Amino acid sequence: MQPMAGQDLLHTQPRPMHWLATATAISAVVAAASFVQPPDATATTTPAATGGHPAAAPDPSRVTFPVDCGPNRLDVVKKASGDLDGDGTTETVAVVRCHSGMGSPPSGVYVLAQPGGRRAAPRIVATLLAPAQQRSVQTLTIKDGAISAAVLGYSTRDVPRCCPDVRKSVKWQWKGGKFVQSELPAAVSTRRV
């Protein structure tokens, strides 16, 4: 009978010294790899860490929004960017709606964030206004981390969908781990806009 190949070779029977040598070699490789990094590698994306230049704002054209437009295309009609949650990164607020030649199609308002890699597509982290709410966004701004918008809507179902008759000024601000909406009561009107 012939012995199994390698059964009598010294290196096929590990001893504690072999394990110690292997562990030492692996530790040396890991330690060396931690010192070899690209020249622009940083732990954060704050403006200070990027030489005074903030990371690029998330691009809404790279996002698949949860809006069904049927045969029509989806349009990004407004966007604004800024640090909304105070973490030092730039978020983008995008107002989207289905393309229409006339009328006032409802808008969706979404907050986008850029995941770790620049090549990764931005992701939706919050829905501030869903198209199902049947509102249109007239203006959008970001100032001091607060999102402000003029939102158009309808006082009753009898109002033609071409002609919103309610205008509200709303604000969303990051508080307690979520976006909180507030409304200015004086801005509510029920006249044609």
Mind explaining what this structure looks like?
The chain is mainly β and 193 residues long. Helices cover 10% and strands 32% of the residues. The chain has one helix and eight strands. It has one helix at residues 16-35; strands at residues 74-82, 91-98, 108-113, 123-129, 136-143, 146-153, 166-175, 178-183. A hairpin with an 8-residue loop joins strand 1 and strand 2. The protein is globular, with a radius of gyration of 28 Å. The termini are far apart.
Index terms:
four-stranded antiparallel beta sheet, single chain, about 190 residues, mainly beta
SSE ordering: HEEEEEEEE
What is the overall shape? globular
Distance between the ends: 98 Å
Residue fraction in strands: 25-35%
Low-pLDDT windows of residues: 29-52
Helical content class = 10-25%
Q: Helical element count?
A: 1
- Let me know the largest β-sheet: 4 strands, antiparallel
**How would you write the strand order of the largest sheet?**
1-2-3-4
Helix/strand/pairing category: mainly beta
Organism: Streptomyces platensis
Protein name: Secreted protein
Brief overview, please?
The chain has 193 residues and is mainly beta.
Spell out the blueprint of helices and strands:
Blueprint: H1 16-35, E1 74-82, E2 91-98, E3 108-113, E4 123-129, E5 136-143, E6 146-153, E7 166-175, E8 178-183
Antiparallel strand pairs: 1-2, 2-3, 3-4, 5-6, 6-7, 7-8
